[in-house]
Write a structure and sequence with these properties.
The chain is an alpha/beta fold and 127 residues long. The protein has one domain: CBS-domain (Roll), CATH 3.10.580.10. The protein has five helices and six strands; from the N terminus they run βαββααβαββα. It is globular, with a radius of gyration of 14 Å.
């Protein structure tokens, strides 16, 4: 059972952003270094997409492509699916299921302020 709490209570506030021209390898390095499963992708300072561990595995490594030569703009998911920080965790769960994704960008006043992931659900149920 999903706890009835707002997304803001379980979201990760560690938002890391890379430019769309950065490589898939750089995204993997950043995720590893910071212990996270996704990075936001920007163009001219504006968030335009998200790259997840799953994107890197399915779209790059699983295809036998060298991640050094792949730009994030070619493997990112866009536009990122978002949810307001005040929405309930159950709504986040539904959005993930409907869109077959494991990461949602959390917004405050329309601007990104965090990430909620499938891992967030597990940590909210089994702290």
């Amino acid at each position: 059972m999903i706890p009835r709490v707002p997304v803001e209570r379980v979201m990760c506030e560690k938002l890391l952003t890379l430019d769309q021209t950065e490589s898939a390898l750089r995204a993997a390095e950043v995720m590893t270094e910071h212990g996270i499963g996704s990075v936001l992708v920007s163009r001219d300072g504006e968030i335009i997409g998200i790259v997840t561990e799953s994107d890197l595995v399915r779209k790059v490594l699983g295809q036998g492509i060298d991640p050094k030569g792949v730009k994030l703009e070619t493997v990112m998911s866009y536009p990122p699916i978002t949810i307001d920080e005040k929405e309930m965790l159950e709504q986040a769960y539904k959005l993930m299921g409907q869109n077959q994704i494991r990461h949602l960008v959390v917004t405050r006043g329309g601007a990104p302020c965090g990430i909620v992931s499938a891992r967030s659900f597990m940590e909210s149920i089994y702290p």
